[in-house]
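During the second half of the funding period, the structural biology subgroup turned its attention to how the target accommodates small molecules. The most pressing case was NDP, which had performed well in the primary screen but for which no bound structure existed. We therefore specified the complex as follows and requested a full 3D prediction, including the ligand pose.
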Amino acid sequence: MTTLPEVKLYIGGEYVDATSGQTFDNVNPATGEVICKVQIASDADVNRAIEAAKQAQKAWAKTTGAERGRILNRAVALIRERNQELSELEVLDTGKPLQEAVVADAASGADCIEYFAGAAALLKGDHYDLGGSFAYTRREPLGVCAGIGAWNYPIQIACWKSGPALACGNAMVYKPSEMTPLTAMKLAEIYTEAGLPAGLFNVVNGYGPVGAALSTHPDVDKVSLTGSVPTGKKVLQGASETLKHVTLELGGKSPLIVFADADLDNAVSAAMLANFYTQGEICSNGTRVFVEESVHNQFIEKLVSRTEKMKIGDPMDMETHVGSLISEDHMNKVLGYIEAGKKAGAQIATGGNRYTANGCDKGFYVEPTVFTQCGDEMDIVREEIFGPVMSVLTFKTEEEAVRRANDTDFGLAAGVFTKDIMRGHRVVAELEAGTCWINNYNLTPIEMPFGGYKHSGIGRENSQAAIEHYTQLKSVYVEMGDVDAPY
Ligand code: NDP
């Protein structure tokens, strides 16, 4: 059993006690045991963090991009050096397998900060020749940005938000999900150790009201949320009072379309990654797998046989493929969807149960589950489950596959498997989704913009596109002659 010291808040470059006097328990979902207590930020603490950010940001905005990049690159080196420690903390908090965490979580966070550290020195405006007079633009920071994170990729999300924010000359107040506060605190320590001036990255812990306080605060200029669609709507509404910039990375129910000519082994690999990586708790997962009818049986045979070989168990064991879901409530929600799928007439090809063998009885494990005989109208096909539950559907024509794939309010991601390059590009062009893959799934390299269409979000993270969302453009007209006035 691992017990850690009580988690405080991180404000002005140091740990501080919350003034609320309240705490909550942080639970290891793999064992159900309390890892530590976490202090809850009061409104006064949130105000204090925002004030610290506001003060620090003024000087930070005046540094050169190269200076900011140098500090951020030192943080990158520290994250990479401490990858093992950060990964283990992430596993304690999330229940995800360590074999994933050591390659995907802090590592992708470091890649992100490194990318924006490099981009900082390249920030620039444009010059417009106006025939004598001229105009230019300045790309300026927004000021104080609030980041609000989900629990599935805690340190990655904290880096995806703070990396571009800081590189562009902003300060950030970050609220991790209350279920996974540990690694954001470590990130704050690392930034300080790397030489980031105090107040530029602050962490306030707590439940939804702490996020709401940030997204409505008059001194916050931008809010970036990764979370569910209902929370996204609340954040957008809260931010509207003070017309903040808003980036929303929300949920999805993404389609993965497998044509008969596809390399089926690769398609099965992708479908498994798109549904069972991190126990299926990934926003962009391809949970509606549309398989062309003629290869359906072959696809299911390969899929079931490989899924049944996945090792469920202690997430700290490097051999484990499937860890614990985030909480008992969430496990019950996922199991509820599985029951609803059975009742609606879908067939379980494999999985379908809570997993309690091999010492997993105290944690919140669910077997990787594949449903066949699914209908488009079923809840398991329409709603985001956020667990290891794949719905396989069949189709006959390309037109039908595209129409049914688009028949959802979500639009985060989509995938297509085919060897026909014309079809691959044609289908992707028709799909209503912000992030698409041809012949792969769920890869999110930092160079590529990431974000959703429709109810899956607003704005983009990663790549040059994120720079647009953490800066504002000032246009400056410069008169080189006389003022031409008719009076
Ligand atoms: P939630 O929407 O429940 O929570 C997200 C964050 O918002 C948490 O920190 C939460 O705090 C906070 N929050 C809750 N209420 C409010 C409020 N009224 N105002 C401001 N902040 C608030 O999502 P989950 O944490 O359950 O994460 C799962 C969801 O996130 C899924 O829908 C998933 O698809 C989505 N997601 C999207 C990603 C993307 O990039 N598009 C990536 C990862 C996940 P607290 O936890 O304390 O309640």
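Two results from this model are relevant to the next phase. Residues 108 and 156 are 6 Å apart (CA to CA). The longest helix spans residues 43-62.
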